[in-house]
Design brief:
single chain; 5-stranded mixed beta sheet; about 160 residues; globular; 8 strands; alpha/beta
Length: about 160
C-alpha cells in the first residue's frame, strides 16, 4: 500500500524502508519496537503541541523519552504551551493519534522539532499514517523530510 508519507519521501528522493507489524498490536512505541525488533528509543513519538498564539508545532522524541517542559518552551519561544487534544491532532494532521507520519501533511511554515539524542541512532521508525505500517529512516533524512530543528528536548541541563 502506498501512503501519502511514502509519496512525500519518494518525491524528495529520500531513502527509507517500509516495515509492517500486526494491526492488532497494542498502541505504543514500546509495542511497535518489540514487534519490529528495535529499541524503544528508535521508535519515534510524533507529538503535537499548541501554543497560546494558536500555533501548533510537532515534537519528535524517542519512544522511551519524555519532553522537558522548560526545554520545549525555550525551543518554541513561548511559556504557554500544552499538548494538543486528540481532536486537535486529527484536525491539524489529518491522522489519528498512534500512527501520525511526521511529514507530508504540514502547511508551509509549520514548525517541527526533533530531540538531538535521536541523531545518534542508526535508524528511526516513524508512523506511516496507518497503524501496522512503519517507515524506517536515517535520522538526518527524517530531519530533512519534516524540516525539523534539532534541539535538546529531553535532557535536563
Amino acid at each position: 500500500m502506498n501512503l501519502p508519507a511514502h509519496d512525500h519521501l519518494d518525491k524528495l528522493g529520500i531513502k527509507y524502508e517500509r516495515a509492517t507489524f500486526s494491526a492488532t498490536t497494542e498502541k505504543g512505541a514500546a509495542n511497535v519496537a518489540n514487534a519490529l525488533g528495535f529499541n524503544e528509543r528508535q521508535m519515534v513519538k510524533t507529538l503535537i503541541f499548541e501554543v497560546d498564539t494558536g500555533e501548533r508545532v510537532m515534537i519528535l522524541v524517542g519512544g522511551d523519552q519524555n519532553v522537558v517542559s522548560g526545554n520545549l518552551k525555550k525551543a518554541i519561544g513561548s511559556r504557554n504551551i500544552k499538548m494538543a487534544s486528540f481532536e486537535t491532532v486529527k484536525a491539524t494532521t489529518g491522522y489519528e493519534v498512534g500512527s501520525i507520519p511526521p511529514f507530508s501533511w504540514q502547511p508551509e511554515g509549520f514548525r517541527s522539532f526533533i530531540d538531538e539524542s535521536l541523531m545518534q541512532e542508526k535508524v528511526l521508525g516513524v508512523g506511516a499514517g496507518v497503524w501496522g505500517n512503519e517507515i524506517l529512516i536515517a535520522p538526518q533524512d527524517l530531519v530533512k523530510a519534516c524540516k525539523a530543528s534539532v534541539v535538546n528536548l529531553v535532557r535536563k541541563d
